[in-house]
Design a protein that fits this description.
Pfam families: 3keto-disac_hyd. The protein has 264 residues and is mainly beta. It has 1 helix and 17 strands.
Length: 264
């Protein structure tokens, strides 16, 4: 039998130990949604003050966060967002979503089977009552329209922000990903890997569909904001995470986050 030198055995042991620690660290997922209620989340809906969950827009049933409009009447541009209580900077977010039902009366046509997750968002408590969208970056979700036409999901939209895409500042409000089209009411698994302002990755059902960097304040789309908050050119290194409500009923579940800040 060939003997292995002691130094090699020690190094192998240290390597195994390090790998074990890394594995344990990577397995530490935080459940942002407890499956029972909206504890630890904040609501902000246009035309309403922070904390007012108008029309019970965001609700929980059967372990799912539901976005519904049955108490609305006309939609009346009441764009809303449900924010987790604290901001994050370096993290891996994962969740599942599905579109259900029909578009609410009065909602803009572009919101048909359209929702998303806002991230690197401003604090909702800094938003005036009439501000429509938070200054943020959006991990946009779109559902297929059943017409055989491609409609990718996991796109990037930029209310009040801009990004560096393919090496240059891109001023488009939305940029399509390379994802497949998902029709019907099927659950879709979405993941977002955010490393401060250096790298952002979108993943849909296990496939990487988009990468970009340097999210920063700038551009238009956001209206009636506090000018002191919109500091164009400022890099976004952290911010709040929010689920979107813009007229289309949608469900969210299994919302978990892994904090990557120790690997910065």
């Amino acid at each position: 039998m060939r003997l292995i030198p002691l130094t090699i055995l020690v190094l192998l042991g240290l390597s195994s130990c390090t790998a074990g620690k890394r594995s344990r660290q990577e397995a530490a997922w935080i459940k942002l949604f407890n499956g029972q209620d909206l504890q630890d989340w904040m609501v902000k809906i246009q035309h309403h003050e922070v904390g007012e969950n108008f029309g019970n827009t965001f609700r929980v049933a059967d372990g799912v966060i539901q976005v519904r409009y049955d108490q609305y009447g006309d939609f009346n541009d009441q764009f809303g967002h449900l924010y987790y209580k604290v901001p994050f900077s370096y993290y891996h977010l994962k969740l599942e979503y599905r579109f259900v039902g029909t578009l609410q009366k009065g909602a803009p046509s572009y919101t048909l089977r359209n929702s998303g997750v806002m991230f690197h968002s401003q604090d909702p408590r800094t938003m005036p009552k009439e501000q429509d969208w938070p200054i943020s970056v959006e991990f946009q979700f779109l559902g297929g329209l059943g017409d055989g036409q491609p409609r990718p999901t996991g796109n990037m939209c930029s209310p009040g922000t801009q990004i560096v895409y393919n090496g240059q500042l891109d001023e488009r409000h939305c940029i399509e990903s390379t994802s497949k089209t998902y029709d019907g009411e099927q659950w879709v698994r979405a993941e977002l890997i955010v490393l401060g302002d250096s790298s952002i990755t979108h993943i849909i059902n296990g496939d990487t569909v988009m990468r970009y960097a340097k999210p920063q304040i700038g551009g238009g789309v956001v209206n009636r904001f506090d000018p002191a908050i919109k500091q164009d050119g400022k890099l976004l290194t952290s911010g709040f995470i929010a689920l979107q409500s813009e007229g289309q009923p949608v469900d969210f579940r299994n919302i978990e986050l892994q904090d990557l800040s120790k690997r910065r």
